[in-house]
Design goal:
A hairpin with a 4-residue loop joins β1 and β2. This protein has one domain: Heat Shock Protein 90, CATH 3.30.565. It has a four-stranded antiparallel sheet with strand order 1-2-4-3, with helices on one face. With 66 residues, the protein is α+β, with helices and mostly antiparallel strands.
């Protein structure tokens, strides 16, 4: 598992969590509790979520740092 917090300029950040396991099926991921929690976190931060399922699963939440 890998967790990364990165600055994207003076006011933006991204938080990325990656696991190289089996991954999620993109079709079934929308109904998962885990993805619902990630989306709720992004909403609280007024941010957005990107999901990649190639070679594992990576969630990236991008949000304003201020």
């Amino acid at each position: 598992m890998e967790v990364e917090l990165r600055g994207l300029g003076p006011t933006r950040c991204s938080l990325s969590v990656y696991a190289d396991g089996v991954g999620l099926d993109r079709a079934g991921a929308a109904d998962s509790l885990g993805l619902e929690l990630v989306n709720d976190l992004a909403d609280q931060l007024h941010g957005s979520v990107a999901l990649s399922v190639a070679g594992g699963t990576r969630f990236t939440v991008t949000f304003d740092a201020s």
